[in-house]
Design goal:
The structure holds 2 protein chains of 2 kinds. By secondary structure, chain A is α+β, with helices and mostly antiparallel strands. In chain A, 30% of the residues lie in helices and 30% in strands. The N and C termini of chain A lie far apart (76 Å). Helices cover 27% and strands 34% of the residues of chain B. An 8-stranded mixed β-sheet of chain B has the order 3-2-4-5-1-6-7-8, sandwiched between helices. Classes of the chains: A alpha+beta, B alpha/beta.
């Protein structure tokens, strides 16, 4: 048996702006578009509508009807962010959702009863999910998407239509609830139709003959029948939140506050989808035009707002925008969240938040390329290593080197780059005297070697060398190397 | 004395001694102990002298060691140490300033010590001479006792190891020189 829920956010464009600026939810708000004097209201929230502000009014008329009206320009990116947020929130409840328009989501809830509970519980879960991303929604549940869509406009915030009872439950609803095109609504009024039940009682073929496709669509909606296949929505490959500003920001603390709110919304979406951000792309819209973009690689994947904000602010301190900012957008490159429980006896390691902050500060202090965990290269070339990301979590370093290596083996202190030295050899070719190593001149007391190695002759970076471990008369214990191609001697390092 | 005494949480330990006396090998042993216990360590390398290959052979788990290369900048090394000891979660923060230790005022040393105590990490400073003065909880000095070579006696083929004596120069709450001696073979 099919069961669908329809999640609907009333006055969606205004709700999207309220999501960005929560303080506006208590005040009359109108979204306006167009250049003055042709500016018109395109959407209004509930408080504004109570005062007579409706879409289509001119800006001047709207202000005349409601003196305390707050107006915001229509911003497509804000609406798009809210639309994605709603879809992702619903996706956290059911794996099959359909994007039915701005602020309208169809959710296939068949089979969720065993997981969540009765239909009303599923509806409440959807309401909570929408609220978590900052949107107040209504939910209708019925046997078809069309009936659920009508149910979402009627009755309680969660309106459950019992299976098979769609016609009886929705028949008395006024036709105005369908928000039909004005021309079609006038035709139905002329025909004397006032409720969905009266429209549904008309013969389908007759409606099609007289009104064509729009009439058929309205008739199907009234009958609660779905004629189109369910088009499942998949999450987009990008995660972005944005906020436009009415004023210009030229100070970092003020920008930090805006970034914090944008990141909070982004983090909520990531939380709903069980994802972490691995890197953030910040795009600041500048007042004179143009953009200031920064790509901030996070030290470790994370979903918490505070460390992400700290990293963004530190980066913007180092690379400030060249002009006042009038718009902010942040997008995240995401990775699946890793859930690992630490063992009872495992030593604590730095938390992701602390580690990210300290790594960023260290990178600012000594350079990004000079901080990390050493990774030995797959080569016999001396000092073959790279610096990789430092991840001390149990999952990052799962295979602990219990008993690895030789306890107490001698450790070398390298000279980077190796220091050229002058070496005199004996008749057998072994080092006898070394000049310029750890003292002006020292006699070789004992030496071991040579350890001969070579490699990469196949790709033009060939190297060949003999290594000697020598104990000098000044007490130093060194590793010398002779380049077989040039015959030069160098001090690789000292054993310490 | 044992390695555990060098790795006491919230304590500042200095390992001092001349070049080739076994200071770095002793530090690598401490890194190994931290890795065995599943902890994380940070190594602030003032001179870019750390050799990952030989440290790995000595048992250090390089994945658990955050290597901060300071390129010879002593001030950056001290500031990095200050940042790291304030980051909770590190079992060991090692500051290797090598042959030319920076000058640290007593006030700076005690501030660092206070930060270490609050952060809970063990701070080990490796240097030719003492750096933190009375700010150090424990100071040990390394001296090389002897070398072991493998192969024929006249023409050895490899350096097998070294023996290091570790003596206590200062232990907070104890008289100087009264901390005992550890023989360390590397």
């Amino acid at each position: 048996m099919s069961r669908f829920a329809c999640v609907r956010v009333p006055h969606f464009v205004a709700a999207a702006v309220e999501r960005v600026e929560p303080a506006l939810s208590e005040r009359p708000l109108a979204i306006v578009a167009g250049a003055p004097p042709a500016t018109r209201v395109v959407e209004a929230n509930g408080a504004a509508r109570e005062r007579g502000v409706l879409p289509g009014l001119t800006d001047a008329e709207a202000r005349a009807r409601c003196p305390g009206l707050v107006r915001r320009p229509l911003a497509d990116e804000v609406g798009a962010s809210a639309r994605h947020a709603l879809l992702e929130a619903c996706l956290g409840v059911s794996p099959r959702v359909e994007d039915a328009g701005a602020g309208l989501v169809h959710v296939d809830i068949a089979g969720l009863g065993r997981l969540i509970g009765p239909d009303a519980a599923v509806g409440e879960r959807l309401l909570r999910a929408a609220r978590a991303v900052g949107l107040e929604a209504r939910v209708g549940i019925a046997g078809s998407r069309a009936a659920a869509r009508v149910a979402a406009r009627l009755g309680a915030r969660v309106n459950v239509v019992p299976p098979g009872g769609e016609r009886r439950a929705l028949g008395a609803a006024a036709l105005a609830e369908l928000e039909l095109p004005e021309e079609l609504a006038q035709t139905f009024r002329r025909w004397g139709l006032g409720t969905l039940g009266e429209l549904a009682a008309l013969p389908r073929a007759g409606v099609a003959a007289r009104l064509g496709a729009p009439g058929l669509s309205a008739h199907d909606l009234a009958c609660g029948q779905d004629r189109e296949p369910f088009r499942a929505w998949a999450p987009p490959p990008f995660w972005e939140e944005a906020q436009g500003l009415e004023w210009e920001l030229d100070a970092l603390p003020a920008l930090e506050a805006v970034l914090g709110r944008v990141l909070a919304r982004l983090a909520t979406r990531l939380e709903a989808a069980r994802l972490w951000a691995d890197a953030l792309d910040v795009r600041l819209e500048l007042a004179p035009g143009g953009h200031h973009t920064r790509a901030v690689a996070l030290a470790a994947p994370m979903g918490e707002v505070r460390p992400m904000l700290t990293l963004l602010v530190l980066d913007l301190e180092a690379h400030p925008p060249p002009a006042p900012v009038v718009g902010v957008s942040v997008s995240a490159r995401v990775v699946p969240r890793r859930a690992v429980a630490a063992g009872l006896w495992e030593r604590s390691v730095p938390t992701v938040r602390d580690l990210a902050a300290v790594l960023t500060r260290l990178a600012a202090l000594v350079g990004q390329a000079r901080v990390g965990a050493a990774v030995l290269g797959d080569s016999h070339r001396p000092d073959a290593h790279t610096l990789g990301p430092f991840d001390p979590t149990p999952a990052g370093a799962r295979e602990l080197s219990e008993g690895a290596g030789v306890p107490g083996a001698l450790v070398l202190r390298r000279l980077r780059p190796p220091r050229e030295v002058a070496v005199e050899t004996d008749a057998a070719g072994r080092p006898a005297t070394v000049r310029g190593a750890t003292s002006a001149e020292a006699r070789v007391v004992t030496c071991a070697g040579p350890w001969r190695s070579s490699g990469e002759w196949w790709d033009g970076r060939a190297w060949a060398r003999d290594e000697w471990d020598v104990a000098l008369s000044d007490g130093a214990l060194c590793r010398l190397a002779r380049d077989e191609r040039t015959g030069c001697w160098a001090l690789d390092g000292v054993y310490d | 004395m044992t390695l555990d005494q060098l790795l006491r949480q919230g304590a500042v330990t200095e390992i001092v001694g001349p070049l080739c006396s076994g200071r770095t090998s002793l530090l690598a042993a401490c890194l190994r102990e931290v890795a065995r216990a599943g902890g994380a360590a940070a190594l602030i390398d003032a001179d870019d002298a750390f050799d990952p290959a030989s440290a790995s052979r000595a048992g250090a788990d390089l994945r658990r060691v955050l290597w901060v290369r300071c390129g010879g900048r002593r001030d950056a090394a001290l500031r990095a140490a200050d940042l790291l000891v304030r980051c909770p979660g590190f079992a060991l923060v090692a500051l290797d300033v090598g042959e030319s230790p920076p000058r640290v005022s007593l006030a700076q040393a005690f501030r660092l010590r206070l930060a270490v105590r609050r952060g809970g990490a063990a701070l080990i400073v490796v240097a030719r001479r003492r750096v933190l003065g009375a700010g150090a909880t424990l100071v040990v000095e390394t001296r090389r006792r002897g070398l072991a070579w493998a192969g024929p006696r006249l023409t050895p083929t490899r350096l097998a190891g070294a023996e290091t004596a570790v003596s206590v120069l200062r232990r907070q709450g104890a008289e100087a020189g009264g901390g005992g001696v550890m023989a360390w073979s590397a």
